[in-house]
Specification:
heterodimer, A: alpha/beta, six-stranded mixed sheet, three-stranded antiparallel sheet, 9 helices, 9 strands, B: 15 helices, globular
Chain lengths: 249, 289
């Protein structure tokens, strides 16, 4: 199968400190990949590198289609301005940006797509509510509706199931499973290792350096998890410069 | 009688009619920009840029005298330099944008006041700081109208990406929207409206026509479109009331307009239907479902 994304010895980070260190590998089209690792391991940073918000310090990230607008991205809720006056309808309509851009008319078909997406996430009748009045779970459902409207072949989810009630998590996991069946490529930053074992065939275990990448069962061994945990989270300003590329683990 | 009080000044005196036209133009341009400044939590940025345009105006005056064109260009250049420098410094150093702006605008204000003083008695500092909406010439009114037109058109063009950039910038980036470009265009609009507002209200008061109607509107409307409409209406009302008070009571017009806007803002905080003191005090009743 062809690769959707390729990492060529990529290093991403802030202030000269790497948070993703020398990652190499390819993500085949249609993969359902969980990205796991301790806090500060570079999971969200990797997604930011893929969407282009962060430029690699070295190496590169290849996009097979070369077209960023074909990426659906779910940010962490903490990155949204919860007091911003936007209706649920308008929030979900942002997903149609790739089609309508700055000036396009949403039209009947677009409105129908948005209504259907809201229905599929269980938010019918919420379209005129302000996003700020939603609960965390409801807002997550609305953000998933936006992903549905985007209809993208590559979907990036940053902590999609953190702090959700059981039912919302199950509903949204079902959507992820459906995307996988439809042949879309899904990358999700995950914390709940049990969910990863049950639902994600592939896993990338990051602890700044890639610790293991492959079939979930082979990656999530006690030894690998212990290795990931033992890697220091603290920045060391006295660390030597890293100019010599190491072989990615 | 009341009609006389309300309408006669504008019919009888051309300078009052021009002032009203200028106020109308400033309201149409500055109020929508102010709404986005508030939503982006950049209200104080507007304040800082407003002070930052002063040295540009002073230099233009020293070089070219009391020329509308030169002072406008000077103000625009200084404002854009301040905005760009602040953004640049926040990107390449540890200072955040608000802190770097705060440092720059103090330097700029001091430099401006110094330059105006060096120019000696030739330029009236009070005029520069507080404007003279009652002395607008035809060309100034045209300039204000042009600025408002450009602002409304530009906002229409960048409206969608600007809303997305405010709410969820990472998403805009992910779908290939040019968030940084939109942000800089918006900052340019802020500068443009402050320079336009300077001609009517002076550098210190111009930012008031952005911020006060916008904060007042927040208490009356839930959506962004509604907020813009209310903010423009409040700015127009403040211009009208301020000019009338200035005319009848013989007080400076710029501060009278800004105080009127301030009064509307205060009333909105107390009486507005959303999140105001009244809304918080109203006994809570609830629907069954």
């Amino acid at each position: 199968m062809s690769a959707v994304l390729g990492f060529d010895d990529v290093t991403l980070g802030y202030d000269h400190h790497p948070t993703v260190h020398h990652l190499s590998g390819e993500i085949p089209s249609g993969a359902l990949l969980a990205i796991v690792g301790p806090n500060g391991a570079g999971k969200s940073t990797l997604l930011k590198g893929i969407i282009g918000e962060l430029k690699p310090m070295s190496g590169g990230i290849r996009r097979a289609d070369g077209r960023r607008r074909h990426t659906a991205y779910l940010p962490q809720q903490s990155e949204l301005d919860r007091s911003f006056p936007i209706s649920v309808f308008d929030l979900v309509a942002m997903g149609d940006w790739g089609v309508i851009g700055s000036f396009g008319v949403l039209g009947k078909a677009g409105r129908a797509r948005i209504a259907r997406a809201l229905e599929e996430v269980g938010l019918e009748g919420f379209d005129r509510r302000q996003a700020g009045t939603l609960s965390r779970g409801q807002l997550q459902r609305a953000l998933f509706a936006r992903l549905l409207v985007q209809d993208a072949p590559l979907i990036l989810l940053d902590e999609p199931f953190t702090a959700l009630d059981q039912r919302t998590e199950q509903d949204l996991l079902a959507l992820v499973a459906r995307w996988h069946q439809e042949g879309r490529t899904v990358l999700a930053v995950m914390h709940d290792l049990e969910t990863v074992r049950q639902r994600f065939p592939q896993t990338l275990l990051l602890a700044r350096d890639p610790v293991a990448w492959g079939a979930t069962a082979a990656v999530m061994t006690p030894e690998n998890l212990l290795r990931a945990r033992s890697i220091s989270e603290a920045w060391d300003d006295g660390a030597p410069r890293c100019d010599v590329p190491e072989a990615a683990a | 009688m009341i009609a006389d009080w309300l309408i006669a000044p504008f019919l009888d005196y051309a300078f009052m009619a021009r002032a009203l036209a200028g106020g109308l133009a400033v309201s149409l341009g500055a109020a929508p920009v102010g709404v986005f400044l508030m939503l982006r939590r950049m209200s104080l940025t507007g304040e800082a840029i407003a002070h930052g345009i002063l040295p540009g105006i002073a230099v233009a005056y020293l070089l070219a005298g009391l020329s509308l064109f030169a002072m406008t260009i000077g103000g625009l250049v200084a404002g854009l330099i301040i905005a760009t420098l602040a953004a640049l410094v926040s990107r390449v150093t540890v200072l955040r944008e608000d802190a770097s702006l705060a440092s720059f605008h103090l330097v700029a204000l001091a430099m401006g006041v110094l330059l105006v003083s060096v120019a000696g008695g030739k330029i009236d500092l009070i005029h520069v700081l507080f404007g003279s909406v009652l002395a607008l010439g035809d060309d100034t009114v045209l300039l204000l109208a042009g600025s408002a037109t450009l602002t409304v058109l530009t906002l229409a063009v960048i409206y969608r990406p600007l809303v997305m950039e405010c709410y969820d910038p990472a998403f805009l980036r992910a779908v290939g929207g040019r968030g940084a470009l939109v942000h800089h265009l918006f900052l340019a609009l802020v500068v443009l409206n402050l320079v336009a507002g300077f001609h009517a209200m002076g550098t210190l008061m111009a930012v008031g026509m952005m911020i006060l109607p916008a904060t007042a509107a927040r208490f009356w409307a839930r959506g962004i479109g509604g907020m813009i409409a209310v903010a423009v209406a409040f700015a127009l009302l403040a211009s009208l009331v301020g000019l009338l008070i200035s005319f009848h009571v013989d007080v400076p017009s710029g501060p009278a307009i800004i105080l009127s806007a301030g009064a509307l803002s205060l009333l909105s905080m107390i009486l507005g239907p959303h999140g105001s003191l009244r809304a918080l005090r109203t006994p809570a009743w609830h629907l069954r479902n």
